[in-house]
DNA sequence: CATGAATGAGCCTTCATTCAT
DNA sequence: CATGAATGAAGGCTCATTCAT
């Protein structure tokens, strides 16, 4: 069935791009992993680069939409950030491959394709900036360098995709909970514990 | 002069590996950037992969030695971490390319070469672990997941190489100072300010 | 309707083979131009090469039959040649694509298929040779190299397919008339004008 | 030696492009004929298309320069044309492959490369046009359609590359001489014989 | 009648590397 | 010290063709 093959290609690409990098992944590697001939691959994708861009846009787009929905109507900045961190960390823990591709391979995209990806990423990070800014204004968060703090916080959370393993002792909930605590500390929010 | 050429090759490799990735960098790119023919390149390096490993080992080795020297004799865990963070952040801000190569391209090394790099990295991270553990034991730091906290802290600090620009308003000292504060917060140390 | 599709394929092939060459025309180009899927194409043709041969044989066969009919019963060599030139030039002006395919792509046919095409072409050229020879025998034409003259004349007339455009000022009748004059000159016939 | 290899590539390309067409000639065919690996080919050429353009420009450029030199200072239009026809025919007889490439493969060039080739061809044909026009003005030539006559004449002469064989009975001088006679007839010049 | 799915073979080109000079 | 010349292997991608549906 066509849909299944298309999905196999996508999955194979995500895994391989994440582990071997875009340039380290050959079209033949992709074909083998998708159980297709390298020629058949091209029924389900444009160029290799377009496949990469598609993966990135989908992944980021989904994350952005979910994030918007998650914080919709939530006014408390701390709660907003709690939800953003939880979603972010869980997504990175559950889909480390997608995430690593998005984080590491933006640079290989040609300008045209890169633009749409960067735009999505910026929109997503704006959600964090907004929440942080409001928390600062409300006197809940404290930092002298909001910009640096925001990016440091994001980098900290991104790291999850690089090391978390579901085979370890830590559950997803524990993980997310702990990161929420770390985030609050980074933001200088009064410890709840 | 031989030394100069060798250095040019090294510099070119660092810059290119950092910006285009190992697999995205061709031997011809390297040659062009080093102002040598691609054949001459091989007077100054082994294989492309060996060049990569060399860069990584040098960079990590230097960082490890400097770190050891920096904390030598320092007993206060908070001071130890302060110095580690400062060194780490400054190194990442000053040499973002070397750092990104070390962070991103470990996976392309063959097992033999990878081992020595990983060993260095582990030794380096052990310095952080030790300081954190002692701080916890001394009641200075507070975290329920020391392992997670340590890695989250490191990832946060690594991020500097991905975004800091010396052309911005932030000085290196400001940057390091701010990250020390963030680190202390992450570790649950009482705010000094 | 089957016939219509078959005809669309044929027309598409003629146009594409003429403009891009046989090897420059892909089966997908053909399919797109014929508004069919590339798989459906094969309901209306054998292999790409057989399609080419078919086009050539049809085109040359029609030309040969028409030529035979045109000069049937005509005894005057000058008149015979006049009619051959007129038919030839008009055919080349009206169907430049078919003609160019026949002229340019004979070499790509495998020996088996090529034979039948070459045979038709030879039969056709024989009509010209016969007329010229008789004209010479009758003292109407004058040339020391009948073989060279015949081929030079044919090449001159073939050229029409390469440049004539119906959008220009020249009508088909003007064109043919002028070429008849040129042909008579080439053959050393006394100018009628 | 480098020059020899480069020359072998050129010669191989000319022969193969002429006999099998540009699209019908694979890079591997080229390599085999040039006695090089297909990778080594690229030391001596840019892309396949650039090689084609180079061949065309060189061939046409040489023809144009020689033609200019040949008619330089010659005022008599008939003499000018005699020399043009002689040069043209001899060149086409001696270098049929180059000529066929120029005549048949212009269409495969991308617009940028095509421009320079077409420009050369136009310059060359202008020499013919000028001579013909002057002959007409001088009352030496007679034709009601100078444009058609010129192109018919050129096509007739081009044909030589398609059929002349040095192994036949006809010498180059005979050939050229005969074509001069044919040309004069086409142009309506009074027969000299 | 029509086509999506599939592929082995092949396309042009670049890869990292070696070596004679 | 330096490099042109050379190449086997591999790169991403397209080819003409078949076949089950």
From TrEMBL, chains A, B, C, D:
<dbReference type="Pfam" id="PF17932">
    <property type="entry name" value="TetR_C_24"/>
</dbReference>
<dbReference type="InterPro" id="IPR009057">
    <property type="entry name" value="Homeodomain-like_sf"/>
</dbReference>
<dbReference type="GO" id="GO:0003700">
    <property type="term" value="F:DNA-binding transcription factor activity"/>
</dbReference>
<dbReference type="InterPro" id="IPR050109">
    <property type="entry name" value="HTH-type_TetR-like_transc_reg"/>
</dbReference>
<dbReference type="InterPro" id="IPR001647">
    <property type="entry name" value="HTH_TetR"/>
</dbReference>
<protein>
    <submittedName>
        <fullName>TetR family transcriptional regulator</fullName>
    </submittedName>
</protein>
<dbReference type="GO" id="GO:0000976">
    <property type="term" value="F:transcription cis-regulatory region binding"/>
</dbReference>
<keyword id="KW-0238">DNA-binding</keyword>
<dbReference type="InterPro" id="IPR041490">
    <property type="entry name" value="KstR2_TetR_C"/>
</dbReference>
<dbReference type="InterPro" id="IPR036271">
    <property type="entry name" value="Tet_transcr_reg_TetR-rel_C_sf"/>
</dbReference>
<dbReference type="Pfam" id="PF00440">
    <property type="entry name" value="TetR_N"/>
</dbReference>
């Amino acid at each position: 069935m066509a849909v299944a093959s298309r999905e196999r290609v996508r999955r194979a690409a995500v895994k391989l791009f994440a582990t071997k990098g875009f340039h380290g992944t050959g079209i033949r590697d992709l074909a083998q992993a998708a159980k297709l001939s390298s020629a058949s691959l091209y029924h389900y994708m444009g160029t290799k680069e377009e496949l990469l861009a598609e993966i990135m846009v989908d992944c980021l787009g989904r994350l952005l939409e979910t994030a918007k929905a998650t914080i919709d109507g939530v006014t408390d900045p701390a709660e907003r950030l709690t939800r953003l961190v939880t979603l972010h960390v869980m997504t990175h823990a559950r889909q480390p491959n997608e995430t690593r591709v998005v984080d590491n391979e933006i640079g290989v995209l040609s300008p045209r394709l890169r633009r749409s990806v960067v735009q999505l990423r910026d929109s997503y990070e704006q959600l964090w900036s907004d929440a942080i800014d409001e928390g600062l204004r409300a006197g809940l968060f404290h930092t002298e360098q909001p910009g640096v703090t925001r990016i440091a916080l994001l980098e900290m959370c991104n790291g999850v995709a690089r090391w978390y393993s579901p085979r370890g002792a830590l559950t997803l909930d524990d993980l997310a909970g702990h990161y929420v605590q770390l985030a609050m500390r980074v933001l200088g929010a009064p410890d709840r514990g």
